[in-house]
Amino acid sequence: MKKMKISLLGLVAMAIGLGVLFGQFLPVAVARIFVTFTSLFGNFLSFSIPLIILGLVTPAIGELGKGAGKLLAVTALLAYGSTIFSGFFTFFSASAIFPQILPQAALPAPENPEHQMLTTYFTVGMPPLMNIMTALLLSFVLGLGLSAIRGTTLQNGFTDFRDIVTKLIENVIIPLLPLHIFGIFLNITLSGQIVGILSMFIKVILVIFILHILLLLIQFSIAGLTSRRNPLILLKNMLPAYATALGTQSSAATIPVTLKQTLKNGVKETVAVFVIPLCATIHLAGSTMKIVACAMAIMYMTGQPVTAGGYGGFITMLGITMVAAPGVPGGAIMAALGLLSGMLGFDETLQALMIALYIAMDSLGTACNVTGDGAIAVIIDKIAPSFMRR
User: Fold this and answer.
1) Do 301 and 200 touch, CB atoms closer than 8 A?
2) Which of 30, 86, 192, 312 is deepest in the core (most CB within 10 A)?
3) 29 within 8 A of 324, measured Cβ to Cβ
4) Does the pLDDT value for residue 335 go beyond 60?
5) Is the dihedral of CA 295, 297, 298, 300 positive or negative?
């Protein structure tokens, strides 16, 4: 008899529910055991973040520069532009909505994370090899250098390093995440803040669902104007890909359906077979929307200032970092943890809340990503046919 496998979303949901449930009656002495594990895991995650950035971003940028010339450049720029637009669209929309629906300063701020929270039995320092910005800058320098040289030795080395980092995410971090989140929500429940957290989750998920529908309408309106086709028909043809992504929670697994529906929209096969697999890796507009909105919601609820200046740099860097997101559930938020920590000051508790909130709607972001890939393919098919000539 085949064993039923529970998805990461299901495990995270169970971890949140059990954390809230056990927080009602679990003795403090026992709860501190889980809080101690959460602290240790959080320290290990902080140690791993620079390695994740270096191992994912460097080879991704290096490989991006060694593709099919102008067509690759145009597709990458369009995907990056779509991702950045998604980030700023989300920022300005959430700036108008969140102050009206979220209570400000309802959670302890990062500079005072232990307010009403249980302490650990002990801590183990796990200092990272380098700080976040050093890892990001080094990744960009090495990645751009790899894309400019003819040699492949260093590129192959970073490809192997990426495999190691991906194994670390898949076999260590992701499996332990539910227990980490359980400890966080157990601690939050014992501190009496759980009602505010769950209320925020529901409100943010609803806002993001509405925003990602609006984003798809904008993307396909631009595609329709560019190709002189009905944008609603273009979007309707991509709905099977949307539905498949909701079920698989994977852009890569949805590629066959996305490709089929893109061809149905009249995109030439030579363009579609290049653009769709590429965009499944580098076009994460929906994931960017989730990260920006969730981060803003948490900052509002911790009483931190949310400014366009501060978020402008974050969104710009996030668009680049999303290129490196591995093809595993929750991969995008793993790649973004360094920016959340280094640029927005998120501590371990707030990072855990981000992970839980992000994964709670992982399928929505993936569906938005792959559906938007179809819009980019329509635009590329119209504006860059000469790039496919040899």
Assistant:
1) yes
2) 86
3) no
4) yes
5) positive
Half-sphere exposure of 109 (CA within 13 A, CB side): 10
Domain annotation for the chain: domains and CATH numbers: 8-388 (1.10.3860)
- pLDDT band at residue 213, thresholds of 50, 70 and 90? very high
Cite the DSSP H helix spans in the chain: 8-22, 28-64, 69-101, 132-148, 153-168, 174-190, 194-227, 231-237, 239-248, 255-264, 269-282, 285-301, 308-321, 331-344, 348-360, 362-383
End-to-end CA distance of the chain: 53
d(CA 29, CA 47): 28
- What DSSP line would sit under 22-76, residue for residue? HTTT--HHHHHHHHHHHHHHHHHHHHHHHHHHHHHHHHHHHHHTTSSHHHHHHHH
Which residue, among 205, 207, 234, 243, has the nearest Cα to 366 in the 3D structure? 243
The conformation of residue 173, written as its DSSP 8-state character, comes to I
Q: What is the 3-state secondary structure (H, E, C) of 146-172?
A: HHHCCCCHHHHHHHHHHHHHHHHHHHH
Query: With 80 as the cut, is the pLDDT of residue 31 above it?
Result: yes
Residue 371 has pLDDT above 80, yes or no: yes
d(CA 236, CA 228): 16
Residue 132 has pLDDT above 90, yes or no: no
pLDDT digits (tens, 9 = 90+) for 245-292: 876 666 766 777 888 889 888 888 778 877 887 787 778 898 899 899
Q: Which amino acid is at 159?
A: T
Q: Which pair of structure tokens corresponds to residue 84?
A: 């950045």
Least confident of 101-115, 187-201, 209-223, 309-323: 101-115
Query: If you write DSSP's letter for every residue of 362-389 in order, what string do you get?
Result: HHHHHHHHHHHHHHHHHHHHHH-GGGG-
Mean pLDDT over each residue of the chain, to the nearest integer: 81
Query: Biggest alpha carbon distance in the chain?
Result: 70
